Amino acid sequence: MKTLAVITARGGSKRIPRKNIKPFLGKPILLYSIQAALDSGVFDEVMVSTEDEEIAELARNAGAKVPFFRSSDTANDYATTADVLLEVLAQYRERGVQFDYICCIYPTAPFVSAKRLKEAMEKVTKQEADALLPVVRFSFPPQRSVVMGEDGFLQFKWQEYMLARSQDLEPFYHDAGQFYCIKVESFLKQKKMVMEKTLPFELPESEVQDIDTEEDWRIAEAKYKALHGKEKGHGTGED
């Protein structure tokens, strides 16, 4: 079985400029994903998909490979992650290299660890699923959410759950925004990230933080320091 880790790190970012290499606790955030993938020991190759020379040089210096650059079609604002992975697999096939499983890791996911990647890859391969998706439970039950009515006053979205106890409601989850483990054969047929047989991989809220704004960034750094300790946060980013 041949496995590939693909870290998707294009140069453009609108909300946080140069987001993929912005220092996170003193180290370019991309390096956390690279290090976790390398340390996991479960990948035959760890590569970074980018169109950016600076990102490519940083990735190579960290031990990842950049065997080719992204095309303009997959480096724009409208290309999906699936588009990027399809191009990566096609480029490798042109070089006579094929993989059985790939793990797409986002470049702004400092909470990803070698341990979690190893656990996830073992789970998806043993259960022969199409894919595996890390998820985290919503901290507040969405069934009891409120919305603003046309009259400007708040109202419960679902009145039937207005008085329900949180512990009595079905737990809802969302994508943790860290990585996807994918069976290549299934992906080439279905061409989407969440496929017919996608396993959940639940993560605790302490290991998850969406990073889309500068405020998110500050929260993530504080959270990381609380989880790993200040000294480690400025070091390798390892467990």
- What class, by secondary structure content? alpha/beta
For the biggest sheet, the summary is:
7 strands, mixed
Can you count the helices?
Answer: 7
Per the principal axes of the C-alpha atoms, what is the gross shape? globular
Low-confidence stretches: 230-239
Beta-strand fraction estimate? 15-25%
Q: Percentage of helical residues?
A: 25-40%
Model description:
By secondary structure, the protein is an alpha/beta fold. It is built from seven helices and eleven strands. Strand 2 and strand 3 (27-28) form a beta hairpin.
Task: Please outline the helices and strands.
Layout: E1 3-8, E2 23-24, E3 27-28, H1 30-40, E4 45-49, H2 53-61, H3 81-94, E5 101-105, H4 114-126, E6 131-137, E7 146-148, E8 154-156, E9 173-175, E10 179-183, H5 184-190, E11 198-202, H6 214-228, H7 230-233
Parallel strand pairs: 1-4, 1-5, 6-11
Antiparallel strand pairs: 2-3, 5-10, 6-9, 6-10, 7-8
Helix pairs in contact: 1-4
